[in-house]
Amino acid sequence: MDRLNLKLYLKNRSIIEENERLRKKALLLNQENQALLSELRQKLSSPNANPNPNPNPNPNNGHVSDASPNSR
Q: What does the record list as coiled-coil region(s) (predicted)?
């Protein structure tokens, strides 16, 4: 019986330590997430934010014409 109690105690201790490790990791990930969210909100609310969501500077909206410059 004492042997079983010791085995269960050690297993419980291991679970508690793993729980603490995961809790710390979750806290760090949450802090990182909050920092990234704050950075994103700041970029989106800045007055010089790019009002054009299309990053393609091509004036023909990314469409390639069929006529090549050498076909004339």
A: 12-39
Task: Provide the residue count of the chain.
Answer: 72
What digits encode the pLDDT tens for the residues 26-43? 999 999 999 999 999 999
What's the half-sphere exposure (Cβ side, CA atoms, 13 Å) at 38?
Answer: 6
- Residue of 72, 54, 71 lying closest to 63 (CA atoms): 54
Provide CB contacts within 8 A for 7, sequence distance 6+: none
Whole-number Å distance between alpha carbons of 29 and 61: 39
Does position 47 have pLDDT exceeding 90, yes or no? no
